[in-house]
Amino acid sequence: MDLPNLTWDKKIGKNDFLVGTALRYTFYDDNTPGTASADTIDQQNQPQKTWLPGIFVQDEISINEKHKFLLGFRYDYNSYHGNIYTPRMAYKWSINDKNILRLNAGTGFRVVNLFTEDHAALTGARIVEIKNELNPEQSYNVNLNYIKKFYAKNGTFIALDASAFYTYFNNRIVGDFETDPNRIIYDNLNGYAENKGVDTKFGFCF
User: Fold this and answer.
1) What percent of the chain is helix, strand and coil (3-state, nearest 5)?
2) Is-contact 139 181, C-beta < 8 A?
3) Domain CATH code at residue 46
4) d(CA 106, CA 91)
5) Which of 6, 19, 55, 68 has minimal Cβ neighbours within 10 Å of its Cβ?
6) How many CA atoms lie within 13 A of 161 on its CB side?
7) H or E element that contains 197
8) For residue 82, what are the CA distances in angstroms to 53, 132, 135, 193?
9) 39 pLDDT exceeds 60?
């Protein structure tokens, strides 16, 4: 359940400030180990009740007509995992009306629910084992984006949107299907994972 965000937006000179609050409440219950107590002898159902209040602030700075810089910071408190900090920054260079360059960087977090996201945990006869208390997945990402616009004399418009991205994950949650053929063992990844690539899109308007 998401409650309405409260925001305050104020422009002062070259700075455009945005401050806000957010609140989310999640209730989750099922008949899987995901909501069972850790006591293996007298295991009881314990529905997950999670409060996630947060506050965010950002400042978009208009250096001039071509250059804009954005700084942002968000703080959330998860009733299970505690304090969560997610800063971000962005830069926009409007080279001209046909060329735009953007650079974005930031951090993120994600609390994973195995039994709604990983359907392998619900299939077959394997026993699901959660080895340790699972921590939220964390990510650090950077994205470079370029937009090119072409205008033809006959009115045709063509847009090229190209991006290069890189994401670094830690605490990634993975399932171990190899150690025990009768079990699926879930734990946070010991180390890190990466996701990187290039994405290109074309748009036409006749």
Assistant:
1) 5, 65, 30
2) no
3) 2.40.170.20
4) 12
5) 6
6) 6
7) strand 192-205
8) 11, 17, 11, 23
9) no
Between 184 and 20, the higher pLDDT residue: 20
Taking alpha carbons only, the member of 197, 196, 136 closest to residue 172 is: 136
Work out how many domains the chain is built from and give that number: 1
**What tokens does 137 get?**
């997945």
The side-by-side arrangement of strands in the sheet containing 99-110 is 2-12, 15-28, 48-62, 67-78, 82-96, 99-110, 137-151, 157-170, 192-205
Reading the block at residue 61, the tokens are 């700075």
CB 120 within 8 A of CB 110: no
Distance CA 124, CA 8 (A): 51
> Strand, helix or coil at 154?
coil
120 three-state secondary structure: helix
- Determine the structural domain holding residue 179 and report its residue range: 2-205
* 108-112: long-range contacts, CB 8 A cutoff, minimum separation 24: 108/138, 108/139, 108/141, 109/76, 109/84, 109/136, 109/137, 109/138, 109/139, 110/136, 110/137, 110/139, 111/50, 111/78, 111/80, 111/81, 111/136, 111/137, 112/136, 112/137, 112/173
The pTM score is 0.73
**Band of pLDDT at residue 133, cut at 50, 70 and 90:** confident
pLDDT digits (tens, 9 = 90+) for 167-192: 998 887 777 777 777 787 777 778 78
Residue 126 has phi, psi (to 5 degrees) of: -70, 145
